[in-house]
Amino acid sequence: MPCQTNGDLQLIVEEAKKYTKLGKVADYIPELGKANPGDLSIAIHYPDGRCISAGDIDKKITLQSISKVISLALVLMERGNRYVFERVGMEPTGDPFNSIAKLETMPAKPLNPMINAGALVVTHMIKGDTVEERFNRLLGFIRELADDPSIGYCERIASSELEAADLNRALCYFLKQHNIIKEDVEILLDLYTKQCAIEMNCLDLARIGMIFAMDGMDPLNGKRIMPDDVARICKTFMVTCGMYNASGEFAIKIGIPAKSGVSGGIMGSVPGKFGIGIFGPALDEKGNSVAGLKLLEFLSKNYRLSMF
Ligand code: GLU
Question: Could you report the per-residue pLDDT of 199-227, keeping only the tens digit for each?
């Protein structure tokens, strides 16, 4: 079913767009710095297949940190909860996404899978013998979630990040010294930067949000894509640490499971109702899409979306 442009949604986007001026695109990954800060688009995907949108929803977004939720779901399925949570914790940090600070407060196990240190450990756990095999496993899972076999990754953004990834490199070496990761750091970074560079449009993103909202079930083909327990764990992390160190404020003001990325994407899952995909590359100082947050705030207030 094609996505319908929606007048009400368009009005909210126009209003929220004013806030793009307050943000800045991420440029620590040089290729991301080329995004247009004035962009803002949204798609909402319902479990009955309906989809409404506003803005240019054909623009492709790289997942960046949004991929962390999906790689977590995959490793929970491949390895089981016990194995995963022996290596990465469940607590929010209150620190920026790329902070190294808490790793020094022993044990060195990262506090959660949504910060970079924890996400690197999760990516390390993806099964397979080569980067290609592991990446294809993740990509296959993502294509299944979005029901879009054309999803791929942006090589330019992956290699731009790989060249500029010294902070993530440092996190990996620290984790390796403490025996939490055991593979070659460059191999892990190659896989991680490709994972972050997986790209799709808002509609795909909204569909993936919808699968999490429906507890891992694809209502459109009746297929269970992940156990409900895995979807539940992922949504809980989205609530407690999905919006970086603004997750508490987000829970109060908006109150839905969501995950953002430095590309300006936000994936939202309104439990039992629908999935949301947003693209707005101008970021606030904590790394969240500044207009994307406003848009969600308007939606949450108007349609009483908060789960609290
Ligand atoms: N690839 C990015 C990094 O690791 C993801 C960060 C993010 O989106 O928060 O720096």
Answer: 999 999 999 999 999 999 999 999 999 99
Q: Is the CB of 65 under 6 A from ligand 1?
A: yes
Q: Which residues are the active-site residues?
A: 65, 68, 192, 244, 262
Condensed to tens digits (0 to 9), the pLDDT of residues 64-104 reads: 999 999 999 999 999 999 999 999 999 988 777 788 777 77
Contacts of 200 (CB under 8 A, 6+ apart): 60, 61, 63, 142, 146, 148, 151
Ligand 1 pocket, 97 CB below 6 A? Answer: yes
DSSP 8-state code for residue 273 = T
243-280 CB burial, b ≥16 within 10 A, e <16:
bbbbbeebbeebbbbbbbbbbbbbbbbbbebbbbbbbb
Instruction: Give the domains, in start order, of the chain with CATH numbers.
Output: 4-62+200-302 (3.40.710.10), 65-196 (1.10.1500.10)
pLDDT at residue 107, rounded to an integer: 72
The atom of ligand 1 lying closest to the CA of 244 is 9
